[in-house]
Amino acid sequence: MPVLGHLDLSENEFSSEVSSKLGKIESLVQVNISHNHLTGALPSSGAFLVINETTVVGNDLCGSSFSPCKKFKN
């Protein structure tokens, strides 16, 4: 069975909130969602526990690693 370890969704003009289902993918170790139009809180599990600012820049997100909520700009 294939395993998803890295997911790059950057620069796709996605808008909405980040699905909590992404945080439940156990094999996922790195997520890049930078430069979209995403809002709200990041999932507080899985790969999102160790996410860094460069992988979320260009969105209006917040989460356990980024408190209080702030806009990440480049």
Tell me about this structure.
The chain is an all-beta fold and 74 residues long. It contains no helices and five strands. It has one domain (6-62). The chain has strands at residues 6-8, 15-17, 30-32, 37-41, 60-62. A three-stranded parallel sheet has the order 2-4-5, with no helix packed on it.
Set down the secondary structure blueprint:
Elements (H helix, E strand, L loop, with lengths): L5 E3 L6 E3 L12 E3 L4 E5 L18 E3 L12
Parallel strand pairs: 1-3, 2-4, 4-5
Compact summary:
It is found in: Membrane. The chain is an all-beta fold.
Features:
three-stranded parallel β-sheet, two-stranded parallel ribbon, globular, mainly beta
Strand order of the largest sheet: 2-4-5
Summarize the amount of helix as a percent range. under 10%
Globally, the shape reads globular
Q: What's the β-strand tally?
A: 5
Instruction: Estimate what percentage of residues fall within beta strands.
Output: 15-25%
Q: Helical segment tally?
A: 0
Structural class: mainly beta
Order of helices and strands: EEEEE
Largest sheet, described in full?
3 strands, parallel
Mean pLDDT: 86
Number of domains: 1
Distance between the termini: 37 Å
